[in-house]
Input
Amino acid sequence: MAWTSIFWGRGTERKGNRVYGKDINGNRYMLSHMKNGQRVVTKKGRRFYNEAPTTEWIIHLPIVNRRNGRLFDPRWHDMTPEIMENLFDAGSA
Output
């Protein structure tokens, strides 16, 4: 597989002083390690931190049903910004 076609999966894995990341095919790459007491980021690590999404906003919407003045079935509905946009069609307003 050519390096330019790699798409990073989510998350990292720590093993000893090394940090690894995986692509969507499950191949593992070393992202950083300790050298002379300092954390050193590898070339693949720089690419990972530039390309991999680091933040994903999730909205936790509380839902509680009510019938005859009584509350039942409390739960949370997790929504991403994409779900919110599709639900409320923010682009057409």
